[in-house]
């Protein structure tokens, strides 16, 4: 399976890069995983609703340009469905079993995702009702994908 993590903004924190590199290395035994960073829009503190939508629309266009029609898309959204680790593992296994060889997880920018990206999503997934920095979500997501593969293979790690 080819897994893309499409995320808005550049990762600057060295400690997060080290953790991400570690999980990318671990995942290489199970799947081809790539991280695609799209540019974030400059957004001052106080934006009108219309200006916020415009920022999300521009970021959304950049995200959508990396997706093909045959990609199964999972968007990370706070107000959506939560899965436990076993359920995420089962979903990834199900997608592979039924011929979905391309999977993309999408992490939006600080304002969230555009309606266009949300409408293209096959599954909206929440990791928590809490808000996390989108840079940290990359590491959390990679760890959960790695955990999912270990669960699906019956390999020790999960508990």
UniProtKB/TrEMBL annotation:
* Keyword S-adenosyl-L-methionine tagged: yes
According to the lineage, what is the superkingdom?
Answer: Bacteria
Q: State the GO CC annotations.
A: cytoplasm
Reactions catalysed: pseudouridine(1915) in 23S rRNA + S-adenosyl-L-methionine = N(3)-methylpseudouridine(1915) in 23S rRNA + S-adenosyl-L-homocysteine + H(+)
Gene3D superfamilies attached here?
A: 3.40.1280.10
Main function: Specifically methylates the pseudouridine at position 1915 (m3Psi1915) in 23S rRNA.
User: Can you say what this protein is called?
Assistant: Ribosomal RNA large subunit methyltransferase H
Organism, scientific name: Caldibacillus thermoamylovorans
Name the gene for this chain: rlmH
